[in-house]
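Run log // design_07
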C-alpha cells in the first residue's frame, strides 16, 4: 500500500487480533496512529475507527494459529494513508524460541519528524529483520552512536544492576511501545521501576537480564547479542513482565462496541 521511500505516505500499527471482531488494546493503537499521523503532517479520517472494525469483519482468513497461550493467535496491520484510505493486512502469528538471540545493525537515518513513528518508509526495518534471519538470529537490534535505540519488531528492555528496567528513549528514535504502555504500571506496582535511558553498549553488557516486547511476540527473553551472552535469561524481569502481559492478554480485547 505504501509509496516507495515516502515516510509521509502512511501511518500504521500491527495489532493483536483474535481472528474475529476484536483487537487487543485497540484504543492505545488508535491513539498512536493519531499521534504519529500528526507528526507526519496529516490527520486521520474522523470515522477511521468504525472503518477499521467494519473491514475487520470482512476479512476472510481461516489459517489455524500456531502459537502458545502467551501470544495472540493472529495479527493485523492497520494502515491509513495521507489520502485517508484505510487498509488491513492480516497474518497468522509466529512462535518464538524460549530464549531469543539478536544481532546489531546500524539504525536507519530519518529526520526528527519521522523518527519514532510507524511510517511509510519501513524497508530498513524489514531489511534488519532479514539480516537477523540470514545470520541465524531471531531479531535485530538497531544501533546508533553505540546505543541500542530499537528492535526490528520489538522494544528491548534491560534490568540493570541498580534494579531499574530501562528502555530506549523515544526522542532518540525508539517507537513508543504499546505493549510497554499496557504493562508498565503493573511492572512498577510489582517492584520493577521502568525508565527511559540511553541504552549504551556498556549498559547492555552489564544487564542482569533483557527482554523484548511486541504486539505479536508479547514478552520474550533475550539472551544473546552478537554471540555474547547477556545476563541471566528468563529471570525476574521476564517472569514479572510475563505475568502482567498474560493478564492484559486475557482482559484487554476491544470490539467496535467499546467505542460507541
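design_07 sequence
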Amino acid at each position: 500500500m505504501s509509496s516507495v521511500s515516502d515516510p509521509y505516505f502512511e501511518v500504521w500499527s500491527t495489532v493483536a487480533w483474535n481472528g474475529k471482531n476484536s483487537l487487543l488494546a485497540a484504543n492505545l493503537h488508535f491513539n498512536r496512529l493519531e499521534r504519529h499521523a500528526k507528526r507526519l503532517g496529516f490527520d486521520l479520517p474522523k470515522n477511521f475507527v468504525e472503518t477499521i472494525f467494519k473491514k475487520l469483519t470482512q476479512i476472510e482468513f481461516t489459517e489455524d494459529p500456531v502459537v502458545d497461550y502467551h501470544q495472540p493467535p493472529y495479527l493485523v496491520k492497520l494502515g491509513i494513508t495521507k489520502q485517508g484510505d484505510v487498509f488491513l493486512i492480516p497474518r497468522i502469528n509466529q512462535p518464538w524460541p524460549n530464549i531469543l538471540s539478536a544481532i546489531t545493525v546500524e539504525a536507519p537515518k530519518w529526520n526528527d519528524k519521522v523518527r519514532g513513528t510507524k511510517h511509510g518508509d519501513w524497508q530498513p526495518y524489514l531489511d534488519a529483520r532479514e539480516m537477523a534471519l540470514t545470520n541465524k538470529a531471531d531479531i535485530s537490534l538497531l544501533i546508533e552512536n553505540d546505543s541500542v535505540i530499537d528492535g526490528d519488531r520489538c522494544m528491548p528492555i534491560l534490568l540493570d544492576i541498580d534494579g531499574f528496567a530501562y528502555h530506549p528513549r523515544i526522542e532518540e528514535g525508539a517507537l513508543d511501545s504499546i505493549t510497554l504502555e499496557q504493562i508498565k504500571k503493573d511492572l512498577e506496582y510489582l517492584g520493577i521501576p521502568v525508565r527511559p535511558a540511553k541504552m549504551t553498549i556498556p549498559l547492555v553488557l552489564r544487564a542482569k537480564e533483557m527482554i523484548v516486547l511486541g504486539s505479536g511476540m508479547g514478552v520474550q527473553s533475550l539472551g544473546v547479542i552478537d554471540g555474547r551472552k547477556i545476563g541471566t535469561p528468563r529471570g525476574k524481569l521476564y517472569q514479572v513482565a510475563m505475568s502482567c502481559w498474560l493478564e492484559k492478554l486475557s482482559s484487554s480485547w476491544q470490539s467496535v462496541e467499546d467505542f460507541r
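The chain has a mean pLDDT of 95.
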